[in-house]
Amino acid sequence: VPNKGHEVSCCIKYFIFGFNILFWLLGMALVGIGLWAWSEKGVLSNISSITDLGGLDPVWLFMVVGGVMFILGFAGCIGALRENTFLLKFFSVFLGIIFFLELTTGVLAFVFKDWIKDQLNLFINNNIRAYRDDIDLQNLIDFTQEYWECCGAFGADDWNLNIYFNCTDGNPSREKCGVPFSCCTKDPAEDVINTQCGYDVRAKPDSEQKDSINVKGCVPQFEKWLQDNLTLVAGIFIGVALLQIFGICLAQNLVSDIEAVQASW
Question: Which of 2, 76, 189, 258 has the least CB density, counted as fewest CB within 10 Å?
């Protein structure tokens, strides 16, 4: 008979279980969305096509985040429900590693901000080259350019990197010397998006380009957005960090309770 002085806290146990079942379900949903998106693009029937993309496939983000959330949620749920100390310790360590990686990334991003800026420029330009190769990537770039009211990494001329938009004489594309519609300045009076608004715009003088498209690059616009929303960004990071620390503490507390009960048998 176990010693009545040691008990596993039901509150902590079911709080961890309830908290993690949400993560588990959300992770499963994200993985499901990723698999559905891949099946729509025929990637699942031809796995080698994953490596054919020149830029980022946004579906990877869903798959990785969803996979991590699924594993963490599963370990936390089963560990709490079955009072399995191995799974609870795995949950704590995994969460601790993620917290450490986030902290390290934050410090390195601050110390090497110029290098980060160069990498962001390279990343955007690689995705500009692959703009027409993947519909999800195309939508991601269009959303970014519309949201931050920008065009290219450091300016509209970065679209020369794309075979459809470059200004070379041998380019047969109708989009030659143009930009995607997401670079265009919005007219509040227009309800329907004019997808041809960027045609031939870079063939005009710089002074005229400003009237029809956003000429600022996405890298400086992102930096400006970060500065303007520093409190919000810092608040989100601190909130996520506290949530992770809280989860680690609760899991360790539950492990201690379970081990104390097992030791008293």
Answer: 189
pTM: 0.72
CATH number at residue 169: 1.10.1450.10
DSSP string for residues in 211-222: HHB--S-HHHHH
The rounded distance, in Å, linking the Cα atoms of 90 and 129 is: 41
209 and 215 in contact (C-beta within 8 Å)? yes
pLDDT tens sequence across 78-96: 988 888 999 999 999 999 9
Answer yes or no: are the C-beta atoms of 56 and 127 closer than 8 Å: yes
Q: Are 145 and 156 in contact (CB under 8 A)?
A: no
Q: Report yes or no on 129 lying in a domain.
A: yes
Within a domain: residue 112? yes
19: pLDDT strictly greater than 90: no
Please check whether residue 13 lies inside any domain of the structure.
Answer: no
* Tens digit of each residue's pLDDT (9 = 90 or more) over 113-158: 888 888 888 888 889 998 988 888 898 899 999 999 999 999 999 9
Q: Which residues neighbour 159 within 8 Å (Cβ) at sequence distance 6 or greater?
A: 128, 151, 152, 165, 166, 178, 179, 180, 183, 202
SS3 content of the chain, % helix, strand, coil (to 5): 70, 0, 30
Q: Is residue 255 included in any domain, yes or no? A: yes
User: What are 184's strand-pairing partners?
Assistant: 213
Domain that holds residue 158: 83-264
When pLDDT is cut at 50, 70 and 90, the band that residue 2 belongs to is very low
